[in-house]
Amino acid sequence: MSVVLVRQRGKSLAELLVVVTLLGALAVIVVPSLTVLGPERVELAAVEVAGAIRFAQSEARRSGAEHGVLLDTTAQRLRVYRIDDSGPSPVVMFDVYHPLDKQLYDLRFATDARYQKVRLDDATFVYQDVAGSQQDIGFLASGEPRYLDAGTPRLLVSGTVTLSDGNHRQQLNIAPRTGRITQP
Q1: N or C: more exposed end of the chain, with fewer CB within 10 A?
Q2: pTM of the model
């Protein structure tokens, strides 16, 4: 019985570096970029705004307490709120938490990495018998869009939100009575 010795040869450092470099180059080509660019970033921001408005409406229906969204174009900020009417006069409370990340529902477009370069250009909500427009939309416990004007709910006549990044633009329209959100 004879034993044949087979010499096993290892890989050199240079060969390993070539393989790793080739795999890295292939990954750069094959794996899509995780960074959202161009119109996708603006669309993502529009989806977030629409989601916040829908969330406020569903929370108003679910809890029986009025909820709303403040879209501040000066501060480039979106905040979801609720109305605490347990005291002598209604108080706006910014203590509503995002349903997914469980953080306060407070989005700052200028500092959130997901929405870099996206601007909240316009948030215009016109209400019955209210002079001018507002930058917030609230919902009665029935889910109907309204604005609380000195304790009196005023129903929504029209509502639009516009977002852009300088090159791309998204507009959301909010329907009176239902609060349904559409994109033209």
Answers
A1: N
A2: 0.78
